[in-house]
Amino acid sequence: MSAVEAKLAELGLTLPEVVPPLAAYQPAVRSGVYVYTAGQLPMVDGKLPVTGKVGAEVTPQEAKDLARTCALNALAAVKSVAGDLDRVARVVKVVGFVASAPDFTGQPAVLNGASELLGEVLGDKGVHARSAVGVAVLPLDAPVEVEIQVELTES
């Protein structure tokens, strides 16, 4: 078990299976020392636990928890091409999309769910730049979607 997966276990979490793509793309690709994930939905056992717009059908706290699940799914996608999460040198960028009710402006707080998970699991390597974007709708009516870019160690 990698040190990162041991940290996940310490937090009571397990790395899920990679979520299969919904269309013509790969869950993650590697280019040199970088891994770019596709947008990860908060799928759990092949299903979305909640659907709808944040600020309407979905509370901000529920959405924050879902962003955490997205980040966990993104780490699984990274492992699928990196082989070992201990090779993560740092998370470079996180981009998050929040399906928002028209008057909802708390996208950054929702995306803190993903950012905080990456920090808990990876420590200083999990500190990153980030964008939090409100959108009208996401695939499958998901409330949140997260993609990450990570740098790997050379070896």
Automatic annotation (TrEMBL):
Residues 5-148 form the Endoribonuclease L-PSP/chorismate mutase-like domain. InterPro entries: Endoribo_LPSP/chorism_mut-like, RutC-like_sf. It holds the Pfam family YjgF_endoribonc. This is RidA family protein.
